[in-house]
Amino acid sequence: MWIIVLVTMVVLFLVCAYMYPPHTRGACYVFSSRGCQFEWLPPSPVRELTDNEIASRVVIRDILNTPAVRSKNSKVAFLFLTPGPLPFEKLWDKFFHGHEGRFSVYVHASRDKPVHFSRYFINREIRSEQVVWGRISMVDAERRLLANALKDPDNQHFVLLSDSCVPLHDFDYVYNYLMYSNMSFIDCFEDPGPHGNGRYSEHMLPEVELKDFRKGAQWFTMKRQHALIVMADSLYYSKFRDYCKHGVDGKNCIADEHYLPTFFHMIDPGGIANRSVTHVDWSERKWHPKSYKRSDVSYDLLKNITSVYLSEHVTSDEQRTVLMRPCLWNGIRRPCYLFARKFRLDTLDNLLNLFSNYTTL
């Protein structure tokens, strides 16, 4: 009886193997009388890194693996990128007041030397050069600000701001949000459309591949380790300097929207939040975000901005896909924004009058 059972099981096994051929090469030769037809595909080759890539990654790896040295007097460096005067200097003076020793200010005025009204801004200009929107000179100015701020070892977090930026919270809230975050707030997302991947140039190969090309707003905040990496980089920066600009391959690549998002996506994707903490309103779908005028500024507007808990990106392809992500701070859901732009000069009085109310939201 056992012999009959055993023979029956073997026959069933062979019948099943015949009716449902296996899908591995070795099993085909053992179990299938008909054999199997396989289309052999070579394994994907692993690209050999260039000497410059190896050298760059070694430096970056060592910086990232070096434990952060906490200063006894850790400061946030506020980096103002402006063509000239700072129209909201009085508002920033109110923001900084009473917190001396916990922040530092650096001003890159690319066109006109500003006249300052606040003691926090006097003699804080760095050597500046002309900046043209959409050109590598914008990235150069950002790196110039970082380099000057890094000279102070107490500066542990770095915030890039424009002349039209305003604070949305009081100083303590902003300081704690940035200083105790476990990552940098660098905007980064993949845009398959013409204003994203459509700007990519194959001249960036082999170091920068299309699959790694990213886009994001330039208004970052970053930890000291990340600031050091930006200053140490010459390889990837040179790719964007030479090939992410107007006219390359008939395209209009904007370096400040692609260099840092792509760079950090490649070298430390887990170390960035993939969002900015500076709010802008792109609802008008133009080349530049909406500018808030005096009649726009109210307690309700500022309350709405500070109550946003989802970051939004919109792709530039025909689908206009809206990408929504929760804003996380050390894994905890928190409001997305610390700052906002673009505000026109005529909004200053309203913002000053509302400051104490909306910054306590």
Descriptive report:
This protein has 361 residues and is α/β, with parallel strands linked by helices. Helices cover 34% and strands 15% of the residues. It is built from 11 helices and 13 strands. The protein has helices at residues 2-19, 25-31, 51-65, 89-96, 136-150, 171-179, 224-232, 235-243, 255-267, 299-306, 348-358, and strands spanning 75-82, 103-109, 155-162, 166-167, 184-187, 221-223, 272-274, 278-279, 310-314, 322-326, 328-329, 332-333, 339-340. The strands form 5 sheets. Strands 2-1-3-6 form a 4-stranded mixed beta sheet. The protein has a 3-stranded mixed beta sheet with strand order 4-13-8. A hairpin with a 7-residue loop joins strand 9 and strand 10 (322-326). Helix 3 (51-65) runs antiparallel to helix 7, helix 5 crosses helix 7 (224-232) and helix 8 runs antiparallel to helix 9 (255-267). The longest helix is centred in the N-terminal third of the chain and has 18 residues, at 2-19. It is globular. It starts with a helix and ends with a helix. The relative contact order is 0.13. Residues 23-36 have low confidence and may be disordered.
